[in-house]
Design goal:
The complex is a heterodimer. By secondary structure, chain A is α+β, with helices and mostly antiparallel strands. Chain A contains two helices and twelve strands; from the N terminus they run αβαβββββββββββ. Chain A has three domains: 39 residues, no CATH class; 25 residues; 124 residues, Cupredoxins -  blue copper proteins (Immunoglobulin-like, Sandwich), CATH 2.60.40.420. In chain A, strand 8 and strand 9 form a beta hairpin. The N and C termini of chain B lie far apart (67 Å). By secondary structure, chain B is an all-alpha fold. Chain B contains 16 helices and two strands. The longest helix of chain B is centred in the middle third of the chain and has 36 residues. Chain B is globular, with a radius of gyration of 24 Å. In chain B, strands 1-2 form a two-stranded antiparallel sheet. Among the domains of chain B are: 176 residues, Four Helix Bundle (Hemerythrin (Met), subunit A), CATH 1.20.120; 173 residues, Cytochrome c oxidase-like, subunit I domain (Cytochrome C Oxidase, Chain A), CATH 1.20.210.10.
């Protein structure tokens, strides 16, 4: 034992090594506890443990409660899709609904309530979407190369975009204006030029 | 009592523990290597922060710096320090010997080689894929192999740790159960085992892909495995940090756990449930159902949150009880006011706990709430969150315990005492500025890992972050980063000076006001005498002095001050949770 060593400088002859615990002052977080350490909880601990547990239950139910009362829900619907097939779908979608061009990118005005394709690839989101205010659209999002992040600003809604997976995000733009899309998942050395745009038309509220 | 079979050992004159020299050297080597990497990662942070303010760094290089900064800090610095802590806890705290020291040294060499390989690949632009390395982005095979070698090294270190503990148990070098600190380290090592295994699957797949053995790694499957280590490693940091918190309570105040069983139960909850929380990284991914998301991030994770709430109470309570025993019983917070604030171990401990609880823990729960995650995913909020957890939480706690470990292990007197006193405040102050600004920027939508927030190269320009409050907030981020780095430099300076210039002594008197071990006995006796005199005086002046000088309304509480503090914390938590939902309600309807 440590304290039995003659070289030990402890003047009391009772080093704090694995000592015999005479009283509480011999206890430490750094030393073995008393042989019987599973003692009953004190009143403080009991109260705090109850409060903390109740708060955890509230946090748990919070997500279900928000499902009932909130308009902003995490999209769940998703499918597998080959990147090439997806690119072809996007091409057809653009051909059908294109109304113009902006900075070299196709501008598309899909009918309200329809399926709307949005392709992420190094380093752009295409096409530019022109939507109507207070109409609901199903955004069908995927990537044709690497992983990207769909970040709609300044609304600040953010989703992960994976190649091979089609994510269906139902949105209802509730205000008019121009809403840039930026990529917020690192996708290569041109990550910081990757943008897109949603234009929302309609009467101002 | 058994005699130790390993010949080279000594008895620490400060703590009374039997120190195995192999364990001592190995712990020191790993900790010092960690500090070197911390210094390197800190220098990268300076460049990353200054680029935001106009320092001409090419985009290519900026991404390399961010990649290396992430891997250096999140993986290399923290895990190397933890390996050092594992060797320390499993040998010195148990008076035990280090098993298989040669294997441990070979393992250390392998980890260093792994680090060098990964750094080479990252800094030469062959692996600009970031720490997350999401496929189909690909990097040079040396990057994956380097990280794998390092991860296997940590795995071996965990196995050595368990071997040490089992040997100590068999040779009865300690009595009864493990000390709480070592128990916490066991929790960290168990979490490390399964984190590293999932990490080996993720990086192993990418390595095989990079050398052409397999063709395709499914991005969604990779993400599930990757976050097993990407977040799992942070759970190791969490468990190790809590163990270090308990160690610092013991070192600085001579504290003991208020309820040993409850603290141990909380570590068990961490082991069993915290890993599931990693799924919060996938909350806005395609491919997962609602029940999967909710089960993993809430139903089960909240049992780990419960564990954190238990520690959040029992550590301050241990401090309060230790202080009250010392005679600081008067008011609700006298124990806190009279605490050793000039002692860097103590100030690190308190700053680390407060910051971890109020900012890191609360933002973590918000991120892990399914619907709220849509407002947070991949924004600078995430970066703010993990700088609060692993930097102002874990790193600061590790810095605090270094003021004890380094002098004790190297047997040198601490150099730069004045600097050490100020260091935790400068470091934490910088991080308060840095993380607060990052969290606000994230709420404004500022993305993470973007070299140019003005999007000057985009065909469709985005001017959102050039106007409004964002430039000012990003300036504050940079100022906070530089201040935190200044605190880091102070820490590294004290460590390096101590190792190189510190006076060699067998009585290094760790820290600045050590409250554990021999000197503490004398101090406690003096304090008791003082308290006795004070009581005697009170008897003379007051008419009926009560035995317990605590006012009656607190009489039922062991740690009334702590109770008030944790209720205040809970109130903050609730307010933040409600504010976050109000923000969510303002977004476009989505589903």
């Amino acid at each position: 034992m440590a304290s039995d060593d003659p070289n030990d400088g402890a003047p009391t002859g009772k080093g704090p090594g694995p000592a015999h615990h005479g009283d509480d002052t011999e206890l430490s977080t750094l030393l073995p506890p008393r042989r019987r350490w599973w003692t009953a909880l004190g009143p403080d601990e009991r109260r705090w443990l109850t409060i903390a547990f109740v708060w955890c239950l509230i946090l748990f139910t919070g997500m279900y409660v928000w499902m009932g009362i909130g308009d902003q829900q995490t999209p769940i619907e998703s499918y597998r899709i080959e990147p090439d097939d997806f690119a072809a779908e996007v091409e057809a979608f653009v051909d059908e609904h294109q109304i113009g061009e902006r900075e070299g990118a196709a501008v598309v005005a899909p009918p309200p309530g329809s399926d709307v394709f949005l392709q992420a690839n190094q380093f752009a989101f295409r096409p530019v979407l022109q939507l109507e205010r207070d109409e609901t659209y199903r955004l069908l999002v995927s990537s044709t190369d690497v992983q990207h992040g769909l970040s709609l600003q300044p609304v600040n809604l953010n989703f992960q975009v994976l190649p091979g997976y089609l994510y269906v995000i139902e949105i209802t733009p509730d205000r008019t204006g121009e809403f840039p899309i930026i990529c917020n998942e690192y996708c290569g050395l041109g990550h910081h030029v990757m943008t897109g745009l949603i234009v929302v038309d309609g009467e101002e509220a | 009592m058994t005699t130790l079979t390993a010949p080279p050992s000594r008895v620490c004159n400060v703590t009374g523990f039997v120190i195995d020299r192999n364990g001592q050297r190995l712990a020191l080597a790993n900790v010092v290597a960690g500090v070197v990497l911390l210094a390197f990662g800190g220098s990268l942070a300076i460049l990353i922060a200054l680029q935001r303010q106009g320092l001409p760094i090419s985009d290519d290089w900026w991404y390399r710096l961010v990649a290396s900064h992430g891997a250096t800090m999140l993986l290399f610095w923290l895990l190397l320090f933890e390996v050092g802590a594992l060797y320390w806890g499993s040998t010195m705290l148990l008076n035990a010997r280090m098993r298989l020291p040669r294997l441990a040294w070979a393992n250390f060499a392998m980890m260093v080689v792994g680090i060098l390989m990964a750094q080479w690949a990252m800094l030469t632009g062959r692996a600009t894929v970031m720490f997350t390395a999401y496929p189909p982005l690909t990097a040079h095979w040396a990057y994956y192999l380097g990280v794998l070698l390092f991860a296997v090294g940590v795995l071996v270190a965990c196995i050595l740790f368990f071997t040490n503990v089992l040997t100590a148990r068999r040779e009865r070098t300690y009595e009864g159960s493990l000390p709480l600190v070592v128990y916490g380290l066991v929790a960290a090592a168990v979490i490390a085992l399964y984190s590293l295994l999932t990490g080996a699957v993720a990086y192993g797949l990418l390595f095989l892909q990079s050398v052409g053995v397999i063709e395709n790694v499914d991005p969604a499957t990779y993400r599930l495995f990757f976050w097993g280590i990407g977040h799992g490693a942070q759970q190791v940091n969490l468990a190790a940090m809590v163990a270090v918190w308990y160690a610092l309570v013991g070192f600085t105040l001579g504290g003991r756990p208020v309820n040993e069983g409850l603290s141990r139960f909380a570590f068990l909850l961490l082991i069993a449930f915290i890993h599931l929380g990693a799924v919060h990284h996938l909350l806005v991914d395609p491919g997962l159902g609602t029940s999967h998301r909710i089960m993993n991030t809430s139903y089960l994770l909240y049992l780990a949150v419960l564990a954190s709430l238990i520690h959040a109470f029992s550590i301050p309570a241990a401090m309060e009880v230790a202080q009250r025993e010392r005679g600081y019983t008067q008011r609700l917070f006298t124990w806190l006011k009279k605490a050793p604030w000039r002692e860097p171990g103590f100030s690190s401990l308190v700053l680390s706990i407060v910051y971890f609880g109020f900012i890191a823990g609360v933002t973590g729960v918000l991120m892990g709430t399914m619907q709220l995650n849509m407002l947070i995913h991949n924004t600078l909020f995430v970066v703010g969150h993990f700088h609060a957890t692993v930097v102002s939480g874990t790193t600061l706690a590790f810095m605090g315990i270094s003021y004890y470990l380094l002098p004790l292990l190297s047997q040198r007197r601490l150099v730069g005492v004045r600097m050490a006193r100020w260091q935790p405040y400068v470091f934490a102050g910088g991080l308060v500025i840095l993380t607060a600004a990052m969290l606000v920027a994230g709420q404004l939508g500022v993305p993470r890992r973007v070299a140019d927030l003005e999007y000057s190269g985009s065909p469709i320009g985005v001017t959102l972050f050039e106007t409004g409050p964002t430039p000012a907030i990003m300036l504050i981020v940079s100022i906070g980063a530089l201040m935190a780095v200044a605190g880091g430099i102070m820490y590294v300076a004290v460590m390096v000076l101590t190792l190189l210039k510190g006076e060699h002594t067998d009585r290094p008197d760790a820290g600045l006001g050590f409250a554990f071990g021999t000197p503490e006995r004398e101090r406690r006796a003096a304090a008791q005498e003082e308290a006795a005199v004070a009581t005697a005086q009170a008897t003379l002046t007051a008419e009926a002095p009560t035995e317990d000088r605590r006012p009656r309304r607190w009489a039922k509480f062991e740690a009334p001050g702590t109770y008030v503090l944790v209720l205040g914390f809970l109130a903050w938590f609730v307010v933040m949770y409600l504010v976050a939902h109000l923000n969510l309600a303002r977004a476009w309807p989505v589903g």
